[in-house]
Amino acid sequence: MDNKQLIASELAKVLTSLDQEAILNLLEQPKSSDLGDIAFPAFSLAKIERKAPQAIASDLAQKIDSSAFEKVVATGPYLNFFLDKSKISNQVIQEVIKEGSNYGQQDQGQGENITIDLSSPNIAKPFSVGHLRSTVIGDALSNIFRKMGYNTIKINHLGDWGKQFGLLMVAYKKWGDQKAVEANPIDELLKLYVRINEEIKNDPELDEEGRQWFKKLEDGDPEATELWQWFRDESLVEFNRIYDQLGVQFDSLNGEAFYNDKMDEGVQILEDKGLLKESKGAQLVELDDYNLPPALIKKSDGATLYITRDIATAMYRARTYNFVKNVYVVGQEQSNHFRQLKAVLKEMGFDWSDDMIHVDFGLVTKNKQKLSTRKGNIILLEPTIQEAITRAKNQIEEKNPDLENKEEVAHAVGVGAIKFYDLKTDRRNGYDFDLEAMVSFEGETGPYIQYAYARIQSILRKANFQPDPAVDYSLQDPESWEIIKLLQDFPRVIKRASDNFEPSVVAKYAISLAQAFNRFYAHTRILDESPERDSRLALSYSTALVLKEALRLLGVDAPEKM
Ligand code: ARG
């Protein structure tokens, strides 16, 4: 039984005016652990029983059966419970040992599907830090949902359609060079795209040409299709290099183009339900009732839009995956788009529109300035990842020059550092992209946690420790107790992260656990001969196991040696 439940059931035996559920909801954590582990505040009883809360608390302290606890003490208006540290520490450690990496696994999801729209960069455009955030957050959420018993489908909804491809074709045919594109696809294609947008200003005819080429593409013209395919393939080669570095995989690469021939059904429903209004030749859905601007579904020339494709996409996902949740990990700047999308689908009569969640996130800055290609304040992802790995390697050289697989470890630390820094931030907040802070071994960083993990592994190797389910691993000291409470909390932490679509809950937890272990380590000679030696090793073992699992949920590797 969970600690709070134990307390609530004991309290319920001596309290007539509140039921167990109500008591459970009142339980809180004392401000300091010297005061106890869990507190019952007597304020709300004061009104019911017409007595001072202090009197109620001391009265309860007399009546309650305290044999299941270390002690139960009334302190002012609170009844403070001190849990039985010896008993609970052994229980928790044995449970972690027994479950192994399965510890914290839950069945809330019952194997139901959650679709996760993540990463979703645009073909022929650079992979931005926003796409990095989406990739890293989406991947972590997928791991967290799986730990809650859901099945996840990670969909990279590539931005591979739109009028810009027509313009790009015109630019390529005029100024492009196949070899240059092959050598540096996104760079070259972006240059072409920027150039044509410049030249359009003097030569509006180019815009019309672009429109025609896009029309050709939409009509399946072989030359246009071949060029489009080529741009897409070349861009993907580049994106895949980044995904390889990050160690992220997808279940589907169905992007915008996939929905070209799937939009009619949605538009037809809108029409049948009388939801389409005409305005200057364009078709739109009014969303006044939702306090939103109208959603433009078709332009006056009949062209479809981003949202038109997203309507088809959502319908396809509902049908194909029968999701319990359809999650979109996309930056805050698209909030209105997703509100409109949800509202339109609601109007269309799809109840599952309630299960669509825009998991939004804030902007990344560099040197506290907004990123801007124009002002040269940009983050080029591949060189940046490389730089993180190099920095990690330099620190490893310094700390442990004899380490065997330095390259591999440097990769895990460098990439882990970038991911962890992103994930520890409440996702709605932005952050400043500061490589030095990210890769630091001190502070609230990925390397700090990885280092704590590797330190434990080294201790366990020295002791040649093997956990034994028959041994009693009880501990009583305050440093161990802080760790025990955290270990016990892990399943709830995962649930909270899942319910709030917030990987930072897991990241912050991992920081607390690593810090608690380091305090224990500073205080205790773990390897010294002592009656508690085995318990201390078992506690270290369990801590390492949970640290590794928390990092895994965040998509961060934990090297055995560092
Ligand atoms: N490609 C878009 C962008 O880079 C993100 C797509 C998000 N997913 C979606 N289903 N709309 O801004």
Automatic annotation (TrEMBL):
- What binding partners and quaternary form does the record give? Monomer.
Top-level enzyme category: ligase
Domain DALR anticodon binding, which positions? 449-562
Organism of origin is Streptococcus oricebi
Q: Motif 'HIGH' region — list its residue ranges.
A: 121-131
Q: Which family does it belong to?
A: Belongs to the class-I aminoacyl-tRNA synthetase family.
UniProt KW keywords: Aminoacyl-tRNA synthetase, ATP-binding, Cytoplasm, Ligase, Nucleotide-binding, Protein biosynthesis
Q: Which protein, by its recorded name, is this?
A: Arginine--tRNA ligase
Is-annotated flag, keyword Nucleotide-binding?
A: yes
Major subcellular site? cytoplasm
Describe the location of the Arginyl tRNA synthetase N-terminal domain by residue ranges: 5-83
Q: What is its EC number?
A: 6.1.1.19
Q: Which InterPro entries match?
A: Arg-tRNA-ligase (IPR001278), Arg-tRNA-synth_N (IPR005148), Arg-tRNA-synth_N_sf (IPR036695), ArgRS_core (IPR035684), DALR_anticod-bd (IPR008909), Rossmann-like_a/b/a_fold (IPR014729), tRNAsynth_Ia_anticodon-bd (IPR009080)
**Intracellular or extracellular location(s):** Cytoplasm
Which terms does the record give in the GO molecular function aspect? ligase activity
What does the record give as the reaction this protein catalyses?
tRNA(Arg) + L-arginine + ATP = L-arginyl-tRNA(Arg) + AMP + diphosphate
| Pfam name, any one | tRNA-synt_1d
